[in-house]
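Database export, one record per block. Field names are fixed; values are copied verbatim from the stored entry.
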Amino acid sequence: MADKVKPNAVEALSGLLFDGMTIMAGGFGLCGIPENLIAAIRETGVKDLTVISNNCGVDGFGLGILLENRQIKKMISSYVGENKLFEQLYLSGELELEFNPQGTLAERIRAGGAGIPAFFTKTGVGTLVAEGKEVREFDGELYVMERGLTADLSIVKAWKGDREGNLVYRKTARNFNPMMATAGKVTVVEVEELVDIGALDKDNIHTPGIYVDHILKGAVFEKRIERVTTRQKETV
């Protein structure tokens, strides 16, 4: 059996990238994003990418660095409110955007990973979300059809992983990462802690290693805070 462990992000992505490909990138805001893999993709200069991700990082960090380098052609997202460059590129027509309700995006990815080509949901019926899509009635209610999503490559961030690719996520980083791990033709994972096979509690593994093709221990994790919110200290 081939060793899934790679020494770094560059090696893990070797031979996988090509212009015009579709990439799923896990994380929620700046939480649980595959920082090292994103940086490695930037260095390759691969372009015309379609990226499926909840959001597109912020200016100068996360997927935002791929925007700055003009490597992304289209985003399939649900939230894009923290990135000024994203706004500029979209309004100027340089960036395509397929906007999704957040739950719909998550389900589209989960469906793609489960081999489900399409499903019906009430979310978006009667709005711009439903334009151009099939709407069907079930039990007296209208539902809009959404297509499942898959990708040429999924880049995922987990807290712990073993050498077989079994993964454990931590808290909010569990948003989007687990379903994206199932929906890529190839899945590459970076972890904070790489452990030996058998070290993880089998009952608490979130992603089985069968979905993972390559795994690496991330060199550095900045873990930036997307938006710092504070309140005044209460006085007695």
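Remark 1: The helical segments are 9-13, 35-44, 64-68, 84-91, 102-113, 177-183.
Remark 2: The first strand starts at residue 22 and ends at 25.
End of record.
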